[in-house]
Structure formats: C-alpha cells, structure tokens
Amino acid sequence: xxxxxxxxxxxxxxxxxxxxxxxxxxxxxxxxxxxxxxxxxxxxxxxxxxxxxxxxxxxxxxxxxxxxxxxxxxxxxxxxxxxxxxxxxxxxxxxxxxxxxxxxxxxxxxxxxxxxxxxxxxxxxxxxxxxx
Length: 132
What we know:
Elements: E1 15-19, H1 23-33, E2 39-43, H2 46-56, E3 60-66, H3 74-84, E4 89-94, H4 98-101, E5 112-115, H5 120-131
Parallel strand pairs: 1-2, 1-3, 3-4, 4-5
C-alpha cells in the first residue's frame, strides 16, 4: 500500500483522500493540491483506498474519487465510505461520457462532480471551496 502524505497531519490541516488508477493523474493532483494547505493521502486502486480510509476515517474531510477504477467502481467505494461517514465530502472525477455518469443521480447523500480533463486551477478552487 502506498500512502503519499503532504503537509503535516494536524487537527488544523484538512485531510484529503485522492483515488485514481492513473499514476500520472495522482502525481499531478498531488503536486497541484500540495499548495492548497491540505494533507493528501493517495490510492491507486479501490482496495487500497478502502484500507487507507479505514485507517484515517476520522481525519479525512474530502475524497476525490475516480468514477471508474479497475478493481472496484467509484460508486461502490462511495457507498462503503459514505455509510460510515455521512458527513464526508466527495468529488467524483471522470473522463467518460455523460451517459455513464447518470448513475450518480441515484446515489444518496451530497457529492460533487468534475469532468476530466479539468484545469488544475479548477480542481484546486473546488477543493478549497469545499474543505477550507
């Protein structure tokens, strides 16, 4: 399991769980969000994300979640984590067509969505608006 952490984990620094199977996306988002004054935990698979979430459940304030992962769908991950933390903020990410994203409308709770490709400024602003 690989956990990438940026910034010191303290009660004052929000914690973000970043989940994407594309290592390049993880690397770029880690770099961009590092300046957003958040602690970043990264996972490149659904199984890894669930393990990290279980370990850091109380600290995580926001999850950036790729909708389509090879081992577990983003929707299934969402259902598992939101069941134990209904106050958790989630942003789904996807580069797939709109018809695949329609499944999100059936999900409980509040979440946000951002379409890939997105600008680095756009994702940083969205993250800051949600957790700061």
